[in-house]
Amino acid sequence: MKIFLCRLSQPIFIWKLLTIKENNLRETEAYVYGSLLVISSFANAILYNWYIFNLRNLSMKVRIACSSLIYRKSLKLNKNNISKTATGQIVNLLSNDLSRFDKLFLQIHYLWAAPLEALIILCLLYVMLDPKGTLGISLFFAFIPIQLYMGKKYSDFRLETAIKTDERVRLINEILSGIQVIKMYTWEKIFIKFTNSIRKQEIRYIRKTSYLKALQNAFNKFLSKGALFLCVMVYIFTGNRLQSQYVFVIKSFYNLLQNNMTTNFPEAIKNIAEASVSVKRIEQFLLYNEIKHNKIQEMQPKKGVYLEKISARWSSAVSDTLSEISFEATLGQLVTIVGTVGSGKTSLINVILHELPLAKGRINIAGNISYASQEPWLFGGTIKQNILFGQPLDDVKYEEVVNVCALNHDFELLPYGDNSIVGDRGITLSGGQKARINLARAVYRNADIYLLDDPLSAVDASVGKQLFNECILNYLKNKCVVLVTHQLQYLKKSDIIYLLKNGKIIASGNYEHIRNCGEDFARLLNKEVEYEDNSTDNAMNQKLLNQKEEKQFYENRSFGTIPLKVYFSYLLSGGWCASSVIVIMFIVSQSLLSGVDYFESYW
């Protein structure tokens, strides 16, 4: 409101100064009005920047809050919804959709402020000058339905653009994930064709949005000049003598309307339309089903995992992935899950983690869970940070975990030990080293239940034996350990063994009981187990010694100012002809706008 008063008072002070002789004002009053004009302009600048500063803070807080919601939601999605959501879609939500809120909060108040200011100016013109001076404002109001229609089209184009952008980002993500296969089969041109096809569809909607924006800008330039022209012509043709104070006061009021009614008001409609699409997309993502955590039931005598006749299936599966599974693992037990590939071992772990929703049955998890996934993963940071994973550092426990996970020798070979950086632009590790770091991360966490999904398959026989004896049997002896494995030599030391086939438990019990239960287990025992060639660990150890230490700290960067050739290459990417036409049209457009103001003052 204070900004309104400062803006609206300026044309009034100009009118007072231009009518000094007619109103017989004294010289001191002229100085007063001149000073008030300067003060109002200064106050308007201060208040406007303070207003923008607060709105930017508000939009930043909303954006951070929504980013946090999306991050938290992505961590809570169950497996069925994760399969529907690509990483590129989440990145698009965070980078593209949330950026709409920045512009929205800067412009949204003009949706009511601009029409209100137009009504106030309408009343001032009617009182101060002549009813004919209000005719030009009708032109502004006449274009409001057109601006609303453009806002609706903005919303439609924004939605179509977002859909095509998601498709393109998803395809690019899949191409990068499988680039080795694409290169091996020389499918580059095929996938380039797919990518270009989707990009052309995306550009088509972007081009339509740009045309609409250009049309809106043309209306904005026309409205203020057209409204002034209409007022002056009506004033002259009704037999009045044109006076300078009349023209300049109307121009001052219409300049205020030009900023709000022809620029900020349409921008507010456009930003609201685009933000509404972003809100719907974010809402759709936030409404995806989350992992359901069952409460711990104190009736259980021991902490552990209790499944009672559960059945579960993936969203893409026709039949149940797991059927009529009853499972129990308590503190102090080593429970081993075995079975052929595709028998449902990892799916059973996902049920315990609440990643795979139940179709029927009951599940009770009594205690905290730590999980080592089948595919080891590392994030960009030091090895120590990967093992701690946000947990506070306990030096004694950390040394014990590193020792039982057979990482001491690897730390001696690495340039900076456990402070060596892994991930992008970091030290390259073998599959076995990644698996041991992955296992150490799970073991370091203080939990009651440890779910270990085939952690021994990526290491050699001697290291696997050390991990099983020192880590699983000894260090975790007082914990509930659920081990998925293909390596049957460790089954003799298991307390309970569950044999899975086609999503069903066909046998359970200790080693001797399972061994005598039937021919399925005998066939499984006699089947040759293929171990991954762990010689890569030894080869990688030698490779680590030869890596340059500078690799951790230096990245490819350029310093100083941006060279002119970068700007020229950017312009030339659009072609000489198109770039030249755009520059010429910009110069001609600005010259015509400046010429209008010059001719107006001369006239």
| Overall CATH architecture of the largest domain | Up-down Bundle
What structural class results from the helix and strand content? alpha/beta
Query: Radius of gyration, Cα only, in angstroms?
Result: 36 Å
Distance between the termini: 36 Å
* Low-pLDDT stretches: 295-299, 528-536, 544-554
The total of beta strands comes to 11
CATH hierarchy class name of the largest domain: Mainly Alpha
The CATH homologous superfamily of the largest domain corresponds to ABC transporter type 1, transmembrane domain
Tally of individual helices? 22
Domain unit count: 3
Portion in beta strands? 5-15%
Mean pLDDT reading = 79
Strand order of the largest sheet: 5-8-9-3-10-11
Helical fraction: 55-70%
Q: Could you give a short account of the major beta sheet?
A: 6 strands, mixed
Shape: elongated
- CATH fold group of the largest domain: ABC transporter transmembrane region fold
Can you walk me through this structure?
The chain has 603 residues and is of the alpha/beta class. It has three domains: 2-290, ABC transporter type 1, transmembrane domain (ABC transporter transmembrane region fold, Up-down Bundle), CATH 1.20.1560; 345-552, P-loop containing nucleotide triphosphate hydrolases (Rossmann fold, 3-Layer(aba) Sandwich); 564-603. It contains 22 helices and eleven strands. The chain has helices spanning 2-18, 27-76, 79-84, 87-97, 100-107, 110-128, 135-142, 144-177, 179-184, 188-237, 244-286, 345-352, 383-388, 395-404, 408-413, 431-444, 461-475, 511-515, 519-526, 535-545, 564-572, 576-602; strands spanning 304-312, 322-330, 334-339, 358-366, 369-372, 381-382, 421-422, 449-453, 480-484, 496-501, 504-509. The strands form three sheets. A six-stranded mixed sheet has the order 5-8-9-3-10-11, sandwiched between helices. Strands 2-1-4 form a three-stranded antiparallel sheet. Residues 295-299, 528-536 and 544-554 have low confidence and may be disordered.
